[in-house]
Every structure is written in C-alpha cells, then in structure tokens.
C-alpha cells in the first residue's frame, strides 16, 4: 500500500518567514511551491527548488490569487482570461526556476481561495485546467477529491490526482470547513493520523458534523504553515511507515 504526502512550501517572502521548509522536505513525497502571488518570491522559489532537488522530491507549482496581504485565502471574482493569465504567469515562472536548476516540474495545485472556489465552480476550474493544458499537457493536476476541479481536469485529458487533507476537517458536502471555524484545523498528531488512516484504508472521513462520508484520495496534504506542521509530519511519516504504507509520489 502507498500514498503520496504533499505539502505547500516556499511561502516565505522578503523579511517574512512562513513554515519550516528544510525540516518538512524529507518527510513528504511531493512539494507544492508558491509562485509569488500569495506567498514566495524569486529568491524563495529558487531556494525551495534547490532543496527539493537535493531531497529528490516531486515538484509542483502552487499558484494562487495575487493577494499577499490575505495569503491568497480571500475569495475573488475574476474573468476566465484573467484566471488563465494568472496560472500561466505563476506556473511559467516556477517552471523556469525548476528547468534552470536541472529539474522537471511535475504537477500543479492551486492555492487557498482559488483552490476552494474551483472545487465548486466548474467555469473557474475549467479556466485553470485549460491554462495548465496549454502550458504543458503532461503536468499532473492536484484537486480536492470529488471536486469540479478534478472533473474539469479529467474532461480535458489531464492526469488528475485527487487529494484529501489530514490537518483539516470536512463538511458533510465533502468540502473543507472554513478556517474561521474554531475546529477547522487539526493540530493533534493522533487525530490527524486517524483521519489519514480512515482515508487510506477505508476511503472515508468523519465530518465536523460527526457523519461519515466516502472520500477517495491518492494524495494527502499537510499544510506547511500549520503551527505544528513539522511535529505532525514527523509523527505521520513514522506511523505510516510502521504500518507498511509507503510514502511515494503518484505514478505518471
């Protein structure tokens, strides 16, 4: 049995330090690197790519809304052409850093509000997918399991990896509980492990309402900006391996 463990990294910019990229890198199999709009900057992008290459991690672009102040977590209403340009600009920039360092960009995972809106808005999802396909149809698309984003990706012929979250609680409709809810984020390692195992072994998750819903995923996400991210990652990495669950990126 195997699972991909992915993490959002490279989100520091300027004088602002976000997350512990160096400590997280060896504990995951895939990394989603910020592209400068919600977090990250040219220096951070280059440094994160170099670290990922050193550890042999699968690298992906993590484009978001142009919203540093809101960390890309504020909903926006923009035209399809603007969405396409936003994706092209950010993914293209990161791909340039990856190629110049001798690596290969493997996947794209939208960030924050862009990700969550695309999960329920097919028009937005389709604009994202078409932009990725024009750039490189070989790129893998990461999206919320069962979402409109995954649906759009499959319709356009992209390889789609459905992901689930082990440090976030779900709602009954399969979407993530908004972060302004005091129980939205899971900080306890044991609770995160149990959620991960229920998804891997039973293809189900218990919602914040206490109801079990089906949930299939090829990748599990752990947020790098979670205050207990490293502790969670170390605990999960150890426990999954103890259960003979290999941590590997999805096959191409």
Automatic annotation (TrEMBL):
EC number: 3.5.2.9
Keyword Protease applies: no
Family annotation (InterPro entries): Glyco_hydro/deAcase_b/a-brl (IPR011330), LamB/YcsF/PxpA-like (IPR005501)
GO molecular function: 5-oxoprolinase (ATP-hydrolyzing) activity; ATP binding
SUPFAM superfamilies associated with the record: Glycoside hydrolase/deacetylase
A Pfam family matched in the record: LamB_YcsF
Entry keyword set: ATP-binding, Hydrolase, Nucleotide-binding
Gene Ontology biological process terms from the UniProt entry: carbohydrate metabolic process
Catalytic reaction annotation: 5-oxo-L-proline + ATP + 2 H2O = L-glutamate + ADP + phosphate + H(+)
UniProt cross-references to CDD domains, sorted A to Z: LamB_YcsF_like (cd10787)
Keyword Iron: no
Family listed: Belongs to the LamB/PxpA family.
Record text on subunit structure and interactions: Forms a complex composed of PxpA, PxpB and PxpC.
Record function comment: Catalyzes the cleavage of 5-oxoproline to form L-glutamate coupled to the hydrolysis of ATP to ADP and inorganic phosphate.
Protein name: 5-oxoprolinase subunit A
